[in-house]
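TA notes, week 10

Several of you asked for a full example with nothing omitted. So below is the full record: structure tokens for the whole chain, then the designed sequence directly under it. When grading your own attempts, check the secondary structure regions first.
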């Protein structure tokens, strides 16, 4: 039940976060000197929001693959849950290490 709810929540969060990234991305190229434009452009580069978006994407994709495998007939739900969770967590930790080492 947790995976079902978490998968839906991350899906909704991804819709909003990706839309937000697209919206704020338009302000990146603005030549306007207005302070409000600079604030919105800074939100586009906000490390916390980017990390939350990648976290949602990793786990949403991982649990989506789990759902597909279960639809294909794999019946080891607990094993699939732990494998998908560990793979997503490992990828997210690798992302965090690279992100904070190379970008932030």
């Amino acid at each position: 039940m947790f995976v079902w709810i978490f998968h839906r929540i991350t899906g909704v969060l991804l819709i909003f976060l990706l839309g937000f990234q697209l919206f704020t991305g338009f302000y990146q190229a603005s030549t306007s000197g207005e302070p409000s434009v600079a604030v919105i452009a800074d939100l586009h580069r906000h490390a916390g929001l980017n990390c939350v978006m990648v976290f949602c994407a990793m786990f949403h994709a991982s649990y989506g693959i789990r759902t597909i495998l279960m639809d294909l007939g794999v019946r080891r739900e607990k094993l699939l849950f732990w494998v998908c969770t560990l793979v997503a967590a490992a990828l997210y930790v690798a992302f965090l290490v690279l992100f904070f080492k190379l970008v932030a």
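The CA atoms of residues 37 and 78 lie 48 Å apart. Use that as a sanity check on your answer.
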